[in-house]
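RECORD TYPE: protein structure
NAME: 7-carboxy-7-deazaguanine synthase
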Amino acid sequence: MSASQETQSLVRLTEIFYSIQGEGRASGRPCVFVRLSRCNLRCTWCDTTYSFKGGEKFTFDDVMAEVGKYPTKLVEITGGEPLLQPTVHPLMTAFADAGYEVMIETSGSLDISKIDPRVHIIMDLKAPGSSEEKRNLWANLEHLKPTDEVKIVILDQADYEWARDKVREHKLEERCHVIFSPVHGQMDGNALANWILEDGLNVRLGLQIHKFLSVE
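PREDICTED:
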């Protein structure tokens, strides 16, 4: 696909917004979020159900022009599930070619092997409390880079124990960065922190700091 063809490709978009990155290794940094529409999962605790339907189609030129209005070179492609749209791949490559630090957040249910190696992958593993555990595509673990992240959202102690066991079984701490994130407003972060310490896990506790802020 030529550069001119790429910029005329379309993605279905829910929103673009500028905020503080609230999770993961980039937590606390200004970031532009490009939220694509549609999702193939229905996690019980999902906080972005508004992205499941609707959205409008935009060209790459439109998306990149809007992102370019903000004073940061950090951009995250998110959803919904962004990998449902095949054109997300050339979009990420276009951002990387333009000098952006590019991240993608994906549910872990779809193949990540074709993602541009310059892109920082934040991949979920779905614990039982999400109701989508069976959708985990375990083959994805082989395609993670040391700079990527695996995020596991924790609803309760059963989820924590599942996550702890998967971290050990798949040696996730040796593959990439691992984040345990409590479901905001439902899982006690103090309890999660104590379990991590008691079990001596080399994982990061992610508290979604954007949910404690009022950023316009």
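COMMENT: Residues 31 and 72 are 6 Å apart (CA to CA).
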